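Troubleshooting: if your tokenizer reports a length mismatch, compare your output against this known-good record of 288 residues.
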Amino acid sequence: MSVFALKILALTAMIIDHTGYFLRANSLIAYDPYNLMRAIGRIAFPIYCFLLVNGFDKSSNRRRYLSRLLLFAALSQIPYTLLFDYGSSFSLAQPVLSLGLAENGIICIAVALCALVAYALLPGMDRGFVCLALFFLCGTLRLSLFGVELLGAELNVFYTLSFGLAAMMVLEGLVYADVPLQKLLPAALILVVSILLFQPAADYAWQGLALIAALWLCRRSRPAQAAVMALWCWWMYWPGTPVRFYFSLLSLLPVLLYNGKKGPGLKLGFYAAYPLHLLVLGLCNLLL
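Known-good structure output:
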């Protein structure tokens, strides 16, 4: 299977998962079909993590790769909040605009400013500076309009993937010493503090970041990566919902069948599909 085929499979599973959540949240389906749709969705994240590690190894410009993830994390946050926020309800009686900060918001802002300064000091500053600013802004602000929460406490999966990619970049710099230590250590410190502040609120939380790190450590052995994925799926799903564990194991098969080929392009299309389908479901959520 090519990268394109893996992306199609993961995207399909994810949309089924989110649609199941939307239907159940609005009492449009019974529990059993809901549970099946959410179980199918467990296929997606391990594949996306595998693709992230694979893309890290093959990317010719990792900073540009990271910038795309940062940008789509910011672009996806409002659609994500519209779908997954439990308390949103439109009402003209509510304040027109309510703006606040996350818990530890002042610390988050300070870390964000340090990260922006560190990025600005790197050679060849590019549009990634803007993407990084939007990334921290959407993760720190809490915004609602007429009672409808637009920027909430929970962060979308692109935050997890962004931190995962940034962590791999720092770890590779430390292991292979291809970046001057005086430049790498401040970036590593800012990354660690950023992860401590933001990752607990991101989709899949620490468990998601752990899977990315483990797949990166085992990146030279496909069977080892499959074993890591199987253990992670057991850790995440077996204790509570065995059916989700069984479906999550299906993610191993396409990874083992991956042939190293890229397949058709449509890179930005796959990125855009995430916020777009969340936006459609989130807007429907408001109308029901």
